[in-house]
Specification:
Shape of chain A: globular
CATH topology of chain A: Rossmann fold
Radius of gyration of chain A: 18 Å
Number of strands of chain A: 9
Strand content of chain A: 15-25%
CATH architecture of chain A: 3-Layer(aba) Sandwich
Largest sheet of chain A: 5 strands, parallel
Structural class of chain A: alpha/beta
Oligomer: homodimer
Number of helices of chain A: 8
Number of domains of chain A: 1
């Protein structure tokens, strides 16, 4: 049994976690992939829930021993996805949801393309993104500017995704997300085509 | 405004029309593309509902004047899809559903790939297809054998489709179909990417 993969990308401030939480009753069981990072935890962040927080040395050891499905270095910190829990969840036939950036999406698609669906989630405009980032009061000016610069370059990759979800109304965005997640789950039936055809044609 | 396309293929006897009808409350408004054919109407078939029935001369005139989105000749009869009603429905932003064969799917995908989603709908096995064809008592032995031969070659194309829907339980198949149809509808947001990015980045 093989599960399916749903990659979500989009600027910080797009509302990805709110959307997932609003839609969770409609999308059935899933495994949310937790990234590993070398950056320090922010206030309130929990090891094993928000991220796996590890040292630079541990991360680089992981790179060398091939434990990452994908990883990248952003502003001097590593971010990556460990292969093992993803592999375990897929073996159980689960839908695995990734919240990763556009580089991560490319790597996951390259490795797991057959079972991958992807969605880019974004506020309706850059201006609206800036408003949301300022309203949440959690980032200083430098961080806000960096997020806006990142968003300006990430939006150019929207065409690489199967779906774009514009988060202007949370209820509509959550409804669209649940459609995408349920469609992603159906993709697992596509794989192992040769066996499917053989069984379909079998006379007994 | 541009709509989206959903192509359905699969053997006669797969239950496509039952599935669409079961799911229709969940998939919103759509335009079901009516094919044009030169074959004679069967008992109960209505011109403009089941097919547009035309003469061989009319059909060949249509081919020459480029009015078909796709067409094929099967067992001496032409089958095709007129471009104009599809174009009109797409201009209104509608989801257009096609029930066409694997050749038709290839042609539609080649022409409208950006906005096309496709699903192959099939009974669980060839044996089960044969049982269903015999139970419906509408075809003679020769027609049943021809449908089974067609099904054996069409199943080999299942991998060309975005989704496979196995119609073993009608309620589950209808639920899967509604997920696929709603996902297909979301695809229209993917197109005209350049305009989307330009508007997203615009400072006012």
């Amino acid at each position: 049994m093989v599960g399916a993969v749903l990659v979500l990308s989009g600027p910080s401030g797009a509302g990805k976690s709110t959307i997932i939480s609003e839609a969770s009753a409609d999308i059935g069981e899933y495994y949310f992939s937790i990234s590993t990072t070398t950056r320090l935890p922010r206030e309130g962040e929990v090891h094993g829930k928000d991220y796996y927080f590890v040292s630079k040395e541990e991360f680089e050891e992981g790179i060398k021993s091939g434990t990452f499905l994908e990883y990248a270095k952003v502003h001097d910190n590593y971010y990556g996805t460990s292969l093992e829990p993803v592999h375990d969840a897929l073996s159980l036939g689960k839908l695995v949801i990734f919240d990763i950036d556009i580089q991560g999406h490319r790597l996951v698609r390259a490795k797991l393309g057959d079972i991958t669906t992807s969605a880019f989630i974004t506020p309706p405009t850059l201006i609206e993104l800036e408003t949301r980032l300022r309203n949440r009061l959690s980032d200083n000016e430098e961080v806000i500017q960096r997020r806006l610069e990142n968003a300006k370059s990430e939006i150019l990759a929207v065409g690489e995704y199967d779906f774009a979800i514009i988060n202007d109304h949370i209820s509509r965005a959550a409804r669209e997300f649940s459609i995408v997640a349920n469609a992603a789950r159906l993709k697992h039936s596509q794989i192992d085509e040769a066996t499917f055809i053989k069984n379909w044609l079998a006379s007994e």
